[in-house]
Amino acid sequence: MNHPIPDTAATRRAPGDGHRVAILVYDGVKLLDVAGPADVFAEANRLGADYRVALVSPTGNEVTTSIGIRMAVDTDPDAEPAPDTFLVAGGDIYPRRTVPPDLVAAVQTVSASAHRIASICTGAFILAAAGLLDGKRATTHWKVAGALASRYPATRVEPDAIYVRDGDVYTSAGVSAGIDLALALVEEDHGPQLTRDVARALVVYLQRAGGQSQFSAPLQGSPPRTPALRRIVDLVTADPSGSYSLAELAVHLNLSTRHLTRLFREELSTTPARYVESIRFDIAKALLDQGHTATQAAARAGFPSYESLRRVFARELDLSPAAYQRRFRTARRDKDPTGATTSE
After folding, report:
1. Where are the domains of the chain?
2. Among residues 74, 114, 108, 88, which one has the least CA distance to residue 29?
3. 19 CB contacts (<8 Å, ≥6 apart)?
């Protein structure tokens, strides 16, 4: 969806004005839905990007968040220069109530001049109320995905995805998924290396791809209690193709092999080799979701061959990597204008 920018809006932007990100806020907005993506853009700026984040409310007045903190606002919809990215933050209120006319009007006004539009969590209800999700795929928090589908039947809701891209409209799942979406937007603008640096600086998962399930293993289970075991995730994600035998992990963590083996057995009920494999499995899924072929995903995730990756997929999901990609790749499949598909 490419929105024509009216002359009046275009003239509000000066050359070299950076990439403007407008975030719509309102009384009852969830603070993390605003602060999480904003921090991603701010950290990207520290690493060389040029995002200009502005908060927009329907009236231009400050708002009160869902936890009672008051939030200053930069502008109102009519005064907002044409944004490159327009984000609509979520809140607990609108899955339960009808979206009011002033919020609908604010979204319609700002989106008319935006280059790309996105919602965080239940902000999808506000986009849908403004008609921006008609005929599109979308997601939201899994608890209210059914309500979104019921209230807006013209929207094809995908309740299991972390975020979904359909054309130039993006929607994300609950709360922290807004960080994943913001990282994906930064990657589109500045590539994977800067995005990885942002993720590391914010101490978040390298990047969960949009099609990854909201209920995937990293979200279902708690992280290891022992700091040494948590460090293994950082080691493997930083260099998936590295060598991580028991002896090499013990050296990295300054532990004896016997002690490390005992930690794995007592806390995780697994072996170091199987744990490393599980991290690589998650990385491979993310790469498949991003559009890499199964062979590329195997190599980049540190598997010795495609066949070894296929065996893990068969064991864990009862699917081949290609079948997984066809079923769960949701966010990136519109990115290639040629309509090209991936293959094994």
Report:
1. 7-202, 222-328
2. 88
3. 49, 50, 51, 52, 84, 85, 189
Q: What is the 3-state secondary structure of 146-196?
A: HHHHHHCCCCEECCCECEEEECCEEEECCCCHHHHHHHHHHHHHHCHHHHH
Structure token pair of residue 171? 């929607």
**Confidence band for 190, pLDDT divided at 50, 70 and 90:** very high
How does strand 137-138 pair with strand 156-157? Answer: parallel
**Alpha helices by DSSP H, 191-221:** 192-202, 217-220
In this prediction, residues 39-59 reach a mean pLDDT of: 96
Residues in the chain: 344
Q: What is the pLDDT of residues 93-107, one digit of tens each?
A: 999 999 999 999 999
Dihedral of CA atoms 200, 205, 207, 208 in degrees, nearest 10, equals -170
Domain 222-328 in this protein, CATH class: mainly alpha
DSSP 234-265: HHHHH-TTS---HHHHHHHHT--HHHHHHHII
Band of pLDDT at residue 315, cut at 50, 70 and 90: confident
The CATH number of the domain covering residues in 7-202 = 3.40.50.880
